[in-house]
């Protein structure tokens, strides 16, 4: 039996019509995407899509996985959905894509031609400040150069970029619309887009990030955006709705990604108030710090990453020596594997050489107690990279005055000047039994790079296995280079309580 030509033609038309009315599935619209380090030394790939969109597919080599929802929309505040996929460390470079956009894998180090060296970039305090007291010109690339700073960072081909905190600075309604948009402020999607997500998108196909929480992301400020977009932990209702005041410390081991036996200990100092704190706050911070240390494997070389610096030197009316409660909580219990602290918070670039004040004996605060059997750090380098874009501080002096170099030895006559006593008491408290031997301060916007020898040998930019710190201007131009001293271990047990 044969089918008549007209009948065959009708069947074809009906088939074509059916195909036309079948639902068509379009790829999710991805607004922003990036890759960052998450707890467990994993790579977290994240994407932001509009409210109502489903999460996109993530292509990892020949594998395709559906991204999970990290954060749902919050009507009127966050009109977006955040998606996430976690990837374990890989010994071979992987091609990671969302749609047509490629995202970097931290295992791509060998492509940069730095054999035996890992390059880490530190940048911080990047948002555009809009407050009741000051309105930075957010529309001027020279007054708020974040995009150019990120471009300069990308030109360094780093293995990892660490943002040491403070992303969102637009906290009040703008009054001068030639400088900033009137309606973009506060902890909401539109503000996060302007202050961080949009600038990030310009380099997220080239750079892998690790994010540290700053005081601008504490529970009184932009904590919701922090937990939605950047926190290294999985998002929970406790963290998001109730705000976790201090998140648990965690360690990123560079050796998991073939970058040497170095560990970054990430500590949340966002709520460590500079002035209003109690002794119980110091004890709680110390307990949190030690719990993380004692529950984590340590690398042979450890770096503390915390937004507020333990030590600093700034003269703005009164002298600032660092975050007092954090220094009191942490300085004396840091095991001797720690060689550096990297922070932001102070809006310039600074590096300080710090050592324990051995003159301070029993009862002298953080001084090592003879015969205690506990050994903490004896010397350490404090690095501050807080000049990433927010309105800069203009330090009056880049040279320490003599009396600021060390914690004082108590004594003197009854007739000593009261003002000098107050300053001396504050300095004694702030330095927590340590001495600042040297300090260098650099003005201007920029960032700093650290080249870490993976094999412990000399390289063209290092000496004796010591990491090299270089401060850069906006476009990446080098301004000054320093070496991080690696103290000789004593092989004595570290502090444990």
From TrEMBL:
SUPFAM superfamilies tied to this protein: Metallo-dependent phosphatases
Pfam families xrefs: Metallophos
Domain Calcineurin-like phosphoesterase per the UniProt entry, residue ranges: 119-347
Alphabetized GO MF terms: hydrolase activity
Name of protein: Calcineurin-like phosphoesterase domain-containing protein
């Amino acid at each position: 039996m044969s089918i008549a030509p007209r009948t065959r033609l009708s069947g074809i038309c009906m088939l074509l019509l059916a195909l036309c009315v079948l639902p068509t599935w379009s790829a999710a619209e991805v607004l922003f995407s990036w890759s960052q380090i998450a707890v467990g030394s994993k790579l977290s790939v994240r994407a932001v899509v509009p409210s109502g969109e489903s999460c996109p597919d993530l292509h990892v080599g020949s594998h395709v996985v559906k991204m999970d929802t990290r954060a749902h929309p919050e009507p009127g505040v966050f009109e977006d959905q955040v998606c996430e996929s976690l990837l374990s460390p890989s010994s071979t470079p992987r091609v990671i894509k969302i749609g047509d956009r490629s995202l970097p894998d931290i295992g791509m180090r060998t492509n940069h031609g730095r054999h035996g060296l890992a390059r880490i970039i530190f940048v911080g305090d990047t948002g555009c400040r809009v407050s009741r007291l000051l309105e930075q010109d957010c529309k001027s690339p020279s007054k708020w150069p974040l995009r150019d700073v990120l471009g300069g960072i990308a030109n360094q081909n780093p293995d990892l970029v660490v943002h040491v905190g403070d992303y969102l600075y637009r906290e009040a309604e703008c009054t001068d619309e030639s400088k900033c948009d009137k309606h973009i402020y506060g902890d909401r999607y539109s503000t996060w887009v302007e202050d961080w997500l949009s600038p990030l998108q310009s380099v997220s196909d080239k750079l892998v990030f690790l994010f540290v929480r700053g005081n601008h992301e504490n529970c009184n400020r932009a904590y919701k955006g922090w937990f939605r977009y950047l926190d290294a932990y999985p998002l929970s209702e406790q963290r998001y709705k109730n705000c976790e005041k201090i998140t648990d410390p965690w360690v990123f081991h560079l050796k998991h990604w073939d970058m040497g036996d170095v560990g970054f200990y990430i500590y949340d100092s966002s709520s460590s108030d500079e002035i209003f704190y109690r002794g119980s706050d110091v004890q709680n911070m110390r307990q949190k710090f030690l719990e993380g240390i004692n529950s984590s494997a340590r690398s042979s070389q450890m770096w503390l990453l915390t937004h507020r610096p333990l030590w600093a030197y700034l003269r703005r009316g009164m002298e600032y020596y660092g975050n007092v409660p954090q220094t009191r909580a942490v300085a004396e219990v840091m095991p001797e594997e720690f060689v550096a602290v990297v922070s932001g918070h102070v809006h310039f670039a600074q590096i300080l050489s710090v050592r324990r004040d051995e003159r301070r004996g029993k009862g002298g605060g953080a001084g090592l107690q003879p015969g205690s059997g506990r050994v903490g750090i004896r010397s350490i380098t404090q690095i501050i990279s807080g000049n990433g874009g927010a309105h800069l501080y203009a330090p009056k002096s880049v040279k320490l005055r003599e009396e600021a170099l060390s914690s004082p030895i108590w004594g003197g006559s009854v007739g000593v000047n009261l003002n000098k006593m107050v300053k001396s008491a504050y300095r004694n408290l702030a330095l927590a039994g340590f001495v600042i031997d040297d300090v260098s301060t650099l003005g201007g916007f920029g960032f700093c790079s650290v080249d870490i020898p993976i094999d412990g040998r000399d390289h063209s930019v290092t000496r004796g296995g010591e990491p090299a710190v270089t401060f850069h201007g906006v476009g990446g131009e080098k301004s000054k280079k320093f070496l991080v001293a690696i103290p000789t271990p004593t092989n004595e047990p570290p502090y444990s309580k």
